[in-house]
Amino acid sequence: MSSAPDSRRKSSVGLETTPTRLRQIALVARDLERVRWEITHVIGTEIVYEDALVGQWGLENFLVPLGGDFLEVVSPTREGTTAGRLLDKRGDGGYMIIMQTEDAKRRREFIEEKGLGKKIWGYENESEGVVCVQYHPRGVKGGVIPELDSHAPSPTNPTPLQSRFSPWHAVGPDHETCLSAMKKTSHLTLEGCILRLAPGDVRHEDAARQWEDVFGVGRSRDLLAFTNARMGFVPGREGLAEGLESVTVGVNGKERFDGILDRAREAGLCGDGWINMCGVKWYFVLTGHGEKEKL
Description:
Layout: E1 21-28, H1 32-43, E2 59-66, E3 69-76, H2 82-90, E4 93-100, H3 104-114, E5 119-125, E6 130-135, E7 145-151, H4 175-184, E8 188-196, H5 204-215, E9 219-220, E10 223-225, E11 230-234, E12 243-252, H6 254-266, E13 275-277, E14 280-287, E15 293-294
Parallel strand pairs: 1-3, 4-7, 8-11, 12-14
Antiparallel strand pairs: 1-4, 2-3, 5-6, 6-7, 8-12, 9-10, 10-11, 13-14, 14-15
Helix pairs in contact: 1-6
């Protein structure tokens, strides 16, 4: 896993930034089966987990590995869900940005003390050392639900943030099965994503500064510097709701890289320099061969 230097610094609101990993991106889709086929077929990955517990919120989902990180897609199964309202408002697209930090509980206490955000859901599993906190998206630039989680170091997982294939609570308790699936896609890396701001909002550096201040992610001007990826923002455009604009995935190996392009073309999913899946632009870059070649 590529890593950013551990350059902790005080943010403008007082608490220092901490190494943070972009561990999972969640999308929302009307037709889950169609998106399941598109993603697994084009990228060449497989379903690693389907969480029956999301049914209590009127959802169904699946997760696929991108090396040591994950892509989730959710779909509503009943009326009146947040996911359903998002689909009605803007169609298929982004849903959540899920980050992994060193101590999500400490960050949550800071956010609540400073009034920087509102927790809408979460849990703590002391035996597993897991803390999971979802925050209300209102007021958070980028149009996604932010989630900040952590795994405590343990004898079997001594470096949960740095280890590429470390356990991840969102894919269930069977780490061995998940580990095998992650390693099968070790040629894939989550390189980053871009969030589109609300119409009329052109202050993309302010957006990055807000995420730095609230969630503790290090920043370089208008880019958030996760340990494994980068996240940026583009100005809002009239007629387009804020939300996830694009995802970039690295592919190690020219044959695999070309295979993704060929399968996307055959499926009629190619746009002008990108692949269109689940309402999001997907960019694939060839890695491991000197300079990256963009798809």
